Amino acid sequence: MTIEIRKQDNGKYLLIGEFEVGNSGHWERRILTSNLSLKKAKELKEKYGE
């Protein structure tokens, strides 16, 4: 899964994940979580991202 960090309008950060659905070759992007500090967002990206 590829994870992207984006800044929200309220100054907090959200994580967006891009992943393949099954083995179909179809990729989806979803908001994984929101309202994070930048530090926490980076920790989660490092832990779960590729």
TrEMBL record:
Please identify the protein, giving its name as recorded: AP2-like integrase N-terminal domain-containing protein
Q: Which organism is it from?
A: marine sediment metagenome
